[in-house]
Amino acid sequence: MKRLLIKNGLIKTMAGREFMGYILIEGAKIAALGETADMDVPGDATVIDAKGCLVLPGMIDAHCHVGIGEEIFRWEGEDFNEMTDPVTPDMRAIDGINPEDEGFRDARLGGVTAVFTVPGSANVIGGTGVVMKTAGKIVDKMIIRDPAGMKIAFGENPKMVYGEQKKMPMTRMGTAALLRQSLVDAQTYKDKLDQGKSDPDKLPERDLGLEGLVRVINREIPLRAHAHRADDIMTAIRIAREFDVDLVIEHCTEGHKIAEELAELGYPAVVGPLLTNRAKVELKDKSFKTPGILAEAGVKVAIMTDHSVTPIEQLPLCAALACKAGMDIEDALRAITINSAEILGVSDRIGSLEVGKDADIVIWSEHPFIITASPLYVIVDGKIVKPEA
User: Fold this and answer.
1) H-state helical runs in the chain
2) What pTM does this model have?
3) Cβ-proximal residues to 52 (8 Å cutoff; 6+ apart), any chain
4) How far is the CA of 129 from the CAs of 52, 83, 313, in angstroms?
5) Helix and strand tally (H, E) in the chain?
6) What percent of the chain has a predicted confidence (pLDDT) above 90?
7) Residue 212: phi, psi to the nearest 5?
């Protein structure tokens, strides 16, 4: 088994510890970490001297379209919106991801070692997203969790796409009605599946879309709700509470207006993209203050790029600009590491530096929120991916 030793770095675990010390990697996992004085160097280990550097867990972009919305192409690489039906829960992001998308290389060279890549927001129900590493050649081997959430969308996007086709939904009421009916259908399908366990004659005809929504009903995966305006956020919450399902608010652009309510209700928010213009009306109150206000209120916050809306390698810059607008630096770091992992349901593997977790580690020349900072080494699953071989 290959061993890699990082020594003499300022190690910020994002699990409550910060110290001058070492990390020992065996294979793809963190085998040990501790104070420099206690270090025992294995004779067969490759050693990286991180003196003067900051060692952090790999960053996690909790909402993007890397791999299914390729930058270089137009329609050739746009595989994240099946705009032929407003309800497509049977779509799976894994089937549209190209691991050779340049966005993956940009991500890992920028210190982003994992992502949640997800269908777009054209549809009321868009399909399931996946959590995956940014290094690898085969999508199936890059996956951490699949499915990791069912994408749904409120507000302008589904109205625009299907209103132009003279289809439902043309209104916010229509969007909510389609989502409710789909969840009712999933509940009915689940009941028939349960009945079929004792009486095979009652098993329903297989329906891939309803199978995906049953995962939501069973609380195996959350709804990932694209919602910018405060009223759309509350509609998403209203429906989630009505059906007793888990929910993550995506974008949450006007979340600062209802921060106390979101904290009281306990729903996490993945905020962004903030490093962009006000491209549509529902972004009119976009502000870098939003993630800080939400975090201070007690909401679990992650910060996203929505790549390729904002280039994925600028994830630390987005967090830094949130700090400039008032967010606590530690909260901002958590928003691109451990909070993202917890929201995505993968904190047992990534998001912090702890024994037994995946060896996804970035060695920074200085704090990543400093504009001149650069990832000197990026390690994914115990393998050095920067500098590139």
Assistant:
1) 102-109, 139-142, 156-163, 172-198, 208-217, 230-243, 259-265, 290-297, 315-324, 329-334, 338-344
2) 0.97
3) none
4) 38, 17, 20
5) 11, 16
6) 93
7) -65, -40
